[in-house]
Amino acid sequence: MQLSISSSSPVKPISHGMLIPRSLNPTSVLSVSRTLFDRRGCGFENSNSLCPSVIARVSTISTEKEAVSDGTERSQVTQQPLQVAKRLEKFKTTIFTQMSSLAIKYGAINLGQGFPNFDGPDFVKEAAIQAIKDGKNQYARGYGVPDLNSAVAERFKIDTGLVVDPEKEVTVTSGCTEAIAATMLGLINPGDEVILFAPFYDSYEATLSMAGAKIKAITMRPPDFSVPMSELRSAISKNTRAILINTPHNPTGKMFTRDELEEIASLCKENDVLVFTDEVYDKLAFEMDHISMASLPGMYERTVTMNSLGKTFSLTGWKIGWAIAPPHLTWGVRQAHSFLTFATCTPMQFAAAAALRAPDSYYEELKRDYMEKKAILVEGLKAVGFKVFPSSGTYFVVVDHTPFGQKDDIAFCEYLIKEVGVVAIPTSVFYLNPEDGKNLVRFTFCKDEGTLRGAVQRMKEKMTK
């Protein structure tokens, strides 16, 4: 794949093996070459790229003044390499940004990036409008407006049976991504080991790199993506500080079973290890009930539970999240949060409080609606010829693309966009070892019925095996 600059552009080498064209328009240029993928560390979901590291050919432009014969000055363009701290060098433009750009370029239906193409409920939006009209527009209290902290605690009690202090144990953040960052930066020291389950959400590795952590990955494999407990047991050492769990799990749709959670909990208690849980899809649990690690005996005291508003209420752009933890862990989370964003959007916090107090009927309808969407996509993918793996939660489905003859997931996704007109996400970017994900791609069904049926129809017309 080649964007913006042709392969014939004269180039000159700069640091780190990057290539910069000798002649550029006086604007910043981003060029991504299919041959330059190094398959490491790309990230996706937040704006979210086409590689575990699409190595980009990039230039920033600076100008100098040069006198000309008529006495005026003209700007002379010089090229400068982009600069980034070493801890972030391997993290490039995210796969989601690249896929969304290609979707527009080729008129493809985007079943890649995980945000809905429909709006959230009116009662929540109206609450936000009212808060703005009521003048709730200045900085909020750093760890959350009291009403939202209380609503989070109330919801957590309903979901887990646990009673938490909204003032001492709930921290409101700018989305779950910031809750993740604040947790990592506030509780992880350089050199600490943190264990992830691959495939994993892109921000985990980047944030842990910023914290200076040593990352260990335990790979879960299809068809059921179960946790290989013997590998986990062997991975824990005296330097292990935390295990990070995402359930329901992005990208696979796996939900950690009670047996798996209880065994992980036992290992954590035996080895004095913390648990960080990302539970943003907890209300999108289809085939089994969601279990929060904090609810297991003896685990609340060593668990940070992270969640957000966006997935449950189709308001991903609001970026309202939170972290729930005992006071001794909340202290570290809040210290980091204070110097990341300090506070989160005030009127949206009041609206989020209204959302979290929605009746049970809202959650029942949400689940019913997503199950219908899931059925459209899964049945369609199977009819086309994909091997579809079970998805018990989230709004994602992972499939084996190998029946269609492409050499890997990135090649398949390029083919799917250009030749079929549908976007999926290559999963190799979700692994420390990209080879583990080269046969898999992820589709999302958080789209309206017409979009899902349109994508399925395109695939049936051009791909059916």
UniProtKB/TrEMBL annotation:
What PANTHER family does the entry give? FI04487P
Q: Which GO terms describe its cellular component?
A: cytoplasm
Q: Which SUPFAM superfamilies match?
A: PLP-dependent transferases
What keywords does the record list, in alphabetical order? Aminotransferase, Pyridoxal phosphate, Transferase
Q: What is this protein called?
A: Aminotransferase, class I/classII
Question: In this entry, which stretches build a coiled coil?
Answer: none
Q: Which domain of life is it from?
A: Eukaryota
Provide the cofactor list for this protein: pyridoxal 5'-phosphate
